């Protein structure tokens, strides 16, 4: 089976899983916020890139509010002609519905270029301990991070612990994450399979 076909099968299986009840999702969101705001990697990052969660993802507003409460600069992805750009967001209410179904920065908010000192929390349908990440199939994060060249920021997958699986099917252009954060804790990636 090709990598693309394996990904499609895995996406279909994950989308068929039940969503956690609202109170469970809220508890997971607050656990993630507590872990992240104390983690050395997060504390040392220049800026933090978050995302506004979709219904099947861990809510990210508590994490945003915890980081802003520490005075941290937070960026969010926004649909752009080249795929994605990232804009500084000071208030959750500065996010508006975007064309891809997620909240994103309003058009008037300034876009900034990501750098090596930044930390990106990336969404995903599944992750593995070797840094494998299964996105929704658009390749947006893979393309924008590839464009960073040697200034690639630290990339941390953010999802429910149940989304950590044995192995994510990966293709040559897929970008691996450096770590994975869930309500169960922070996991640094072990490197490529077989490494």
Task: Provide a descriptive summary of the structure in words.
By secondary structure, this protein is an alpha/beta fold. It has a single domain (3-188), classed as Rossmann fold (3-Layer(aba) Sandwich). Helix content is 26%, strand content 23%. It contains 5 helices and 12 strands. The protein has helices at 3-15, 22-38, 40-44, 61-69, 140-146, and strands at residues 48-49, 74-80, 83-88, 95-97, 103-105, 111-112, 119-122, 126-127, 133-134, 154-158, 179-182, 185-188. An 8-stranded mixed β-sheet has the order 6-3-2-1-7-10-11-12, sandwiched between helices. A two-stranded antiparallel ribbon has the order 4-5. A hairpin with a 5-residue loop joins strand 4 (95-97) and strand 5. Helix 2 (22-38) runs parallel beside helix 4 (61-69). The chain is globular and about 40 Å long. The two termini are 23 Å apart.
CATH H level, superfamily name: NagB/RpiA/CoA transferase-like
Tell me the CATH architecture.
3-Layer(aba) Sandwich
Shape: globular
**Terminal residue distance:** 23 Å
Q: Numbering strands along the chain, what is their spatial order in the largest sheet?
A: 6-3-2-1-7-10-11-12
What's this model, at a glance?
This protein has 195 residues and is α/β, with parallel strands linked by helices. Helix content is 26%, strand content 23%.
């Amino acid at each position: 089976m090709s990598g693309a076909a394996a990904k499609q099968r895995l996406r279909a299986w994950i989308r068929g899983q039940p969503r956690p009840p609202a109170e469970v999702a809220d508890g997971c969101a607050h656990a993630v916020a507590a872990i992240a705001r104390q983690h050395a990697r997060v504390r040392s990052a220049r800026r933090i890139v978050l995302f506004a969660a979709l219904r099947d993802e861990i809510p990210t507003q508590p994490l945003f509010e915890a980081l802003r409460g520490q005075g941290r600069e937070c960026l969010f992805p926004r649909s752009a002609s080249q795929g994605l750009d990232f804009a500084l967001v000071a208030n959750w209410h500065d996010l508006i519905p975007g064309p891809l179904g997620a909240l994103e920065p309003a058009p008037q908010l300034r876009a900034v270029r990501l750098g090596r000192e930044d930390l990106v929390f990336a969404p995903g349908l599944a992750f593995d301990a070797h840094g494998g990440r299964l996105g929704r199939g658009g390749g947006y994060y893979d393309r924008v991070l590839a464009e960073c060249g040697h200034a690639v920021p630290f990339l941390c997958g953010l999802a429910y612990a149940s989304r950590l699986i044995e192995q994510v099917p990966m293709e040559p252009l897929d970008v691996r994450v450096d770590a994975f954060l869930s309500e169960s804790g922070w996991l640094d990636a072990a490197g490529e399979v077989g490494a």
